Amino acid sequence: MDVTALLALVDSLYDSEESDATKVSFMNLALEDLYPYFGPIMTDNTLVTVADQDNYALPTGIEDVSDIISLGIGNQATPSDRYDYTRYHLSKVNEDPMIWNSYYQIYDDAGDKQICLYPIPSTDDLPISIRYRARIPELSASITTDEPAFDSKYHSMLAYYCAKMLCTIGSSPDESQANAFMAMYDEKLNELWRKAMDDEIENPANDGANHQWKSAKRHVNGF
User: Fold this and answer.
1) What is the pLDDT of residues 9-61, one digit of tens each?
2) What 3-state class would DSSP assign to 38?
3) What is the C-alpha to C-alpha distance for residues 195 and 82, in angstroms, rounded to an integer?
4) Which residues fall within 8 angstroms of residue 198, CB to CB, at 6 or more apart?
5) Cα(215)–Cα(200) distance, rounded to whole angstroms?
């Protein structure tokens, strides 16, 4: 379902004088909610450690540390295989003390998000391997032939979310209609959640094959 079809569906659900650009902006808000279910899993190996530096810029494709699925640092400059990495775990910036290898999000002086590592690396040029889930590309009201980059079975969710948002703006919000459209959206979202849980049960992550990646309580003071 391309942008033209999605806009037509929105109009059939709820009559609104809002511009197509506004409607598409609401659809893009829904994409933020949906990308964990559809974003392709990527791996970025461009970062390397710098001795005595704990903060690193987010690699291209990662907008927030919550996008990261796993992060590991090689135990030598050229790891021999996937076993030659130590896994790091997502933590909160105010966790004190940290009892294992951790990464968390901080902001630099310009307000940009960065990854912070604990303990601070003491060696240069160790590869930082990051697996992350890429976000779904946004739609544009000016490119109406584009389709959302995920399973077409769920494209209608963008129209339901948009219709819900249209009901909530203006001088006379229609709360009843907004709740109805949100229920339609949530029904599909719950379906996605159940599918994700079933997939996890049928295809569990195989991190346990790597004894270092599995050892969450392994305390390391350096590299």
Assistant:
1) 999 999 899 999 999 999 999 998 998 888 888 888 789 999 999 999 999 88
2) helix
3) 29
4) none
5) 21
3-state helix, strand, coil in the chain (%, to 5): 40, 20, 45
Phi, psi of 145 (to 5 degrees): -90, -5
Structure tokens at 43: 């791996």
Strands 127-133 and 41-48 turn out to be antiparallel
3-state secondary structure of 189: helix
**pLDDT for res 220:** 38
* Residue pair 68/90 in contact by the 8 Å Cβ criterion: yes
In contact, 70 and 207? CB cutoff 8 Å: yes
Per-residue tokens: 141: 């009201």
Question: Cis (ω within 30 of 0) for the bond into 97?
Answer: yes
Q: What is the DSSP string of 193-210?
A: HHHHHHHHHHS---GGGS
Give the amino acid at 187.
E
Four-residue CA torsion sign, 32, 33, 36, 40:
negative
- The token duo for 173 is 């919000």
Question: How far, in Å, are 6, 22, 140, 161 from residue 13 at the CA level?
Answer: 11, 16, 20, 11
Q: In what order do the strands lie in the sheet with 68-74?
A: 41-48, 127-133, 68-74, 85-90, 102-107, 113-118, 55-57
> Which residue, among 61, 60, 37, 54, has the nearest Cα to 149 in the 3D structure?
37
